[in-house]
Write a structure and sequence with these properties.
The chain has three helices and two strands; from the N terminus they run ββααα. The chain has helices spanning 28-36, 41-47, 53-75; strands at residues 8-9, 20-21. The longest helix is centred in the last third of the chain and has 23 residues, at 53-75.
Length: 76
C-alpha cells in the first residue's frame, strides 16, 4: 500500500512550507487547483512530465487525510 508521506513533503525552505510533491516545487494546492479548474490528469502529466500518476493519487490521499484530521478535530 502506498503512503502519501513517501510522495508529499513539507519543507519550510520550499514554497514557504506548503506541502509539495517530493523532488518538485509543485504544491498539493497547485494540483488541486488545476483539477478544480478543469484540467484532466493527462493534461497535468503532459504539462509536468516529471510527475506520475502515483504523484496525483497521493495528492488526493494527502487532501483526504487532511480533511479527515480537520473533521475529527472539529467534532472533538
Amino acid at each position: 500500500m502506498m503512503n502519501y508521506k513517501d510522495y508529499i513533503t513539507i519543507n519550510p525552505d520550499i514554497r514557504s512550507g506548503k506541502p509539495c510533491i517530493k523532488g518538485t516545487r509543485i504544491t498539493v494546492y497547485d494540483i488541486l487547483e488545476y483539477l478544480a479548474g478543469g484540467m484532466s490528469e493527462k493534461e497535468i502529466l503532459d504539462d509536468f512530465p516529471n510527475l506520475s500518476h502515483e504523484d496525483i493519487q497521493m495528492v488526493f490521499a494527502f487532501a483526504a487525510a487532511r480533511e479527515h484530521r480537520l473533521s475529527s478535530s472539529m467534532a472533538a
